[in-house]
Structures are given as C-alpha cells and as structure tokens.
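Appendix B, record 7
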Amino acid sequence: MKNQSIIGFIVLSFGLISCGQYQSFKIPSPIINQIDLVGNQQISKAELRTNILGLKNSYRRLLPAKLYTYLGIKRKRKDSLEIKPSFIQFFKSPNPDFSAIWLTTNTAQIQRYYRENGFLNAKIESKLDTNNNLVNVIFAIDEGEASYFTKQDSVSVDNPILAEHVNSYLKENSIIRPMGRLQLSLINKEKEQLSHHLRNEGYYYFSPDAVGIRLNDFKDSSLQRISLYYKIPEFKNYSTITNYDRLYRIGLPNFSISDPYGNPAERPPLKSLAKLINLHEDDLYSVDLFNQSLKNIYLTDQFKTVSIRFDTTKTRLFPKIELFQNEKYNFSSELGGSVFRGIPGPFLTNSLKIRRLFSGLDYFDFSTRIGYEAQSGFINTTETRNNLELNLSASINFPFLHLPKVIVGKLGSYYGAKTSVGVGFDFINRPEYQRTNLNLFQRYSWQKSENSFFTFSLIDLNLLNTLYPETSTSDSFKAYLEELKVKGNNLYRSFNPSFVSSLSFQYVYRDLLPSNELKSGKILQLGLESGGTTLNFLPNYKFNFVTDLLNNGQEIQFYRFLRINFDFRKYKMLGSNQKSQIAFKLIGGVAYSYGQENDFQLPYEKNFFIGGPSSVRAWKPRRLGPGAYVSASNLVEQPGSILLESSIEYRFKLFQLFGQMNGAFFIDAGNVWNMTQGNTDPTTQFQLSDFYNQIAVGTGFGLRWDFNFFLLRLDLATKVINPANPVNQKWVLPQTSFEAGQNPIEFNIGIGYPF
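Structure tokens (predicted):
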C-alpha cells in the first residue's frame, strides 16, 4: 500500500510537471526551500527545531517547493476563504514565506535560546542562497564556551530565621548542581522549588515572587563559571506581601458537611474526618501535608466536592473545610453478551454500593455476575457448549489502617489508606465438572506519594472443591487429568479439594498511568507472598476442621510455599517531535514449595506461565517451556516455578484512518523453568550454568488502531530461537511461514498495548 502511494505521487508529479500550465508557473514571492544549521555541537539540530518556532518546518519535503506552491495556489483559488484544506497529508505543510523580518526574528530566537541554555557568547550568522524566489537559509552557529554553575553562591535574607531555612535548602535540596550547565529555565524552577520548600516549613504566604536570583559576575566577569546571588525578598511588579517571612501554625479545622441535597448532614463524622488530617493543632503549616489531607478525604468516596479556605485573621491558620456528601446508595446493572463460534452467551452484572453503613466514612460493596457463555470442551475442542458461571463478592471498606498504633507510627506520613474485609464465591458448572471457590480476604492499602502504592494482605483464604457428575464426559476429563499428571503437568491439582492460605505484600511505583497515549515514564512492581505460613505450627500441617467441612472422601491439599516476583517497565519518547516510543519490560519471579506432603508442588494458580498476546508472542498463550521441554500438544498449558521474560518494542505513528493507525516492531524473549526438587525431567529444570541456552526469542511486527476510547491490536510474531529444538537446530527464523510447519507465524489480536 505504501509503495503504491509513492508510485502514485511520482506519476502525479510527472503529470503536473509535464503540463504547460505548470511549466510556465513562477513562484510569486520568496519562499524558503530549505533551512540548514551548521556549527552546532552541544545543542542538537532536533532540539533547536523543536524549540524554535521558525525552524519547525526545516525538514526536506517529499515534493519540490515549486509543486507545493503551485498546488497550494490552485486550491486557494477554488475556495473563497482561501483556507481549503489539503486532501493529501503531504500537502499540509507548504514551504514558509521568506522575508527580512523572518530572518531577523529567527536569528534572534536562536541567539536567545543559546543564551538561555548557558552559551552566553554564542554568535549566529545567516547565509542565503536564492534562485527563482527559492531561498536556502543556512544558520552558521559559533556556540562558544558554555557557562557552568559553581554553587559558590551568596545569600541575602532579611529575616535570620528564614535565612536558616533558605541555607538548609540550598545545601540539601537545591535542584541546581555544581558544574551543571547554566539554564535560565532551571533558575525559574529553583525559585518555585525554594518557595514550595518554605511553604512546607510553615511559611504560608511565601511565593516565588519573593525570590530574586541573579548571576554574580564579581567572581568571574566572563561568566564562564557562574555563581548566583539569592536575595529575599525581591518583589518586582507585584504588591509586596508583608507576611512572606511569617511562620504559621495550624489551628483546629472546622468542617461544614452537607447532605446530597444541600441540607446539614445528620451525625457528621467529625472525629473520623479529623483523623484524616495529617496536620495537627500547633503543627507548622505544610502545603504537601495539607494537600495529602484533602486527598485523604476525597478518597473516602463519601463526598462529591471537597473545598477549603483558611481563616488568617488570627495568629494561626484555621482550616474551614466544606464537604457535600455523595448519595448513600449507588446501584448499577449491565446486561451483555458474547458470541463464540456462533453461539450467543449472555451475562448479567450487578453492583451495589452502600455508603455510611456502620460509620460516617465506610462503604459496602456488593457485586454479582452470572453468565451462560459458550466455551470449547476440554477433551474435544471442536465441541462448544454453554457453561454456567456465577461470581459473588462483598466487602466493607474503611479509610484507615486498622493496625496497632506502633506500626502505623513507623509508616510515617501516608495517604489514601484503606482497610478492606471481604468474601467471594465462584461457581462454574461445566459438563466435565462443577467447581467452587470460597474466598475470604483482608487487606491494607496506602500511598506514600503520588507514585508509590503499597498493599499488605494479612488474610487470603481459598477453599476449592470440585464435584464430578457420573457421565462419560466427566470420566474422560478425569482420565485426561491423569494423563497430564503422568507427563509432569500438575493441572490436576487445580481440581482437587484444596485449602490455599497466604499473606502477601506488594509495592508499586508508577509515574504514568497505563493508557493508549504514548508518553515517557516507568512502572515497577514488587510482590512477596508466603503461603500456608500458619500450617508450619501444626503437627500434620493441616487444619482438621477444613477436612471435616468438605467431608467428600477426597484428600484435601494444604499448600506451603514462598513466592517473589518483579515487573519493571520503561517507556521513552523518541524523535524531534516526540511521536515514537521505545517500550521495555523485564519480568521475573521464583515460587518455591516446601510442602513435602504435596510432592513439593505449587497450587496451580501460583505457577508462572509464559507465551501469548501480552507475553512472548511467537508462542501460543501459556504454551512456552518449561526449559527445553518438548510438548506433544499445544492444548496443554506449561506451568513453571521460575520465570524470566523481557520485551522491547519500537512504536510509531503511521496514518489516520477513522482513528490513528500505529505500527510497532518488537522482540520478545524468556522462558519458565521448574525447581529440581519434585521434578524428574531434567529438560524442565533450571540450571544456572545452562539456562541462557533455553531462552526463547521471538520477533515480529504489529498494527495498533487507536480510536481514543479503545485500541485494537494485531501482532504477527515468528520464532527466532526455539529452546525445544536440539542444540544445533534452535535457530528457526529462516523456516518462518504463513502455513503450518516448523515455524508458523502467530496472529495475536488484543485490546490495548501488550505492556
């Protein structure tokens, strides 16, 4: 398609050039044919073109400038307003007009940009090459020597107590570093940062306008080594704030709470709200802590609006907080369906939220989902049946950490705290089996900053049970599980009666929210889990009352294990226009079962899996590994207790088509392995001296159709290195084909980016 477009443009160009009207056309006024920058070394051309308006269109165009101008004039003649848009993307950026004013303005802008970025002695000269009103502009740049901060600064502050805070900031928190290149934008940020720091130290009225920062030329008149002179106060073009250097302490907050209809709320939770304020009476004012307090109130989900103003008529700051409550009840219902192999599968989802059930700040969540959806059979995958699935969950949530005060005190300042207690029930009815899972959980969650999230689950109990009807389909399924067991696959354990208990901790850092928008940032996730911890204190590592509860004649599995995992993702924008992106992820984990009573096997859900649309895309979902294991069928999932996975993907924009069409090139790598303990097949075991020879590698190309509200993804992936092959036959890229064979291309369709 792309080649056809290029050929079409070439044909169009030759057709126009050959026509007499075009041949006789002359460009009516000087236009810029090309802009070039020479002599720059420390500041790139891409940076200059991005930050200087007159240089943004300095790229070389696909078609000649004369053709752009000719077509542009013809379009405007057909439009009375002379604004008729181009129907082809290539014609949307005509060559800019040239004038002496344009040249003077852009020369000055380049000069200014260099000075603002530390090149105080930079010199800019312009050269012109004109032919038939086509002007080639060359900006010759002599950057000169850059100027650097020395941090040998001088400070003048009228108030001695304020001076101590300023000197402490410059010593420990200043964003200007020794031998950093001079940047005027950095000096402005320094004013804002210093003001923010002082407002956290109790100076409520302090603002960046009170800070004066000048270049001090007494120590070095050439200004190659810059020292700064801080002067406080230095108000310019603003009315002086007399209380800029006054410390303020917090008084008791005053809450005004209204119900959803504007009436005074009944039984307002004043004491509970006061606990959410991170500043207490007599504390020095801190803008960060108070913003945290407001967010604490907002995150309770009890109030539509949260507003604050301060009473400063007295010697302290008295917060006046106005709150409007949300509705007590919220109910939503969704009816939907899916179609699998032409068979419809309806589902119904209901959710109910009740606020202020036990106190003024708690809320109760209850949700149900019932679906009668089509799925393929386990044994005969060509058969399709409707299966019943029922999910129930209920939880009560409080905006506090219900932990001993000693532990809470050691956590320091935090916000967004929540304690949740809940129960869940899942029921699946298939022709092969009926499976239930009763879940009881309790967890704590909180934030230390806008980017750092913590979750600690003290209780997570799962009681699983499976019943088999007396049918031939059920008997075939049980025989299938036994066959997998012989092959070393522990899927059968997922259907045995089981009691899985664990406590876990998770930390997440993210400075961007996952979305369809391409932007820079990173995400780090760490998880720790200990399963069956309390079983270690029992003589037979079992709870007898659980065995009595099920009482179905089958032996109940009690698991003891440790699990750790990490997930790191990095996104970086590229190019002068920041329209492409490099995305990288590295995932790893280890799960170790120390329960000999279960042959050192993990609960099936606690294993690691690899392969599929969001993993190593050249392999089918959950079908890669473990190690160099050769699977007899792609129908069997391949679990592992050790995971190592990585992907790198280059994402770029292509064209508009009822939305934005984007492309991507990617490389995926990784595998899963088993522990040596409890596993007899050496090809699946992790060996430190040889694991790198079992890393699977895949590559491919993807298309992403971005409609803003959702993104449709298609990835075509092929194997590069297949660890299941013999040593000298692992390189399989040349055997790639669109048909079945040694290395067929995998088509992956999904919603959203893979990571």
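Remarks on this record: The radius of gyration is 34 Å. Residues 86-90 have pLDDT under 50 and may be disordered.
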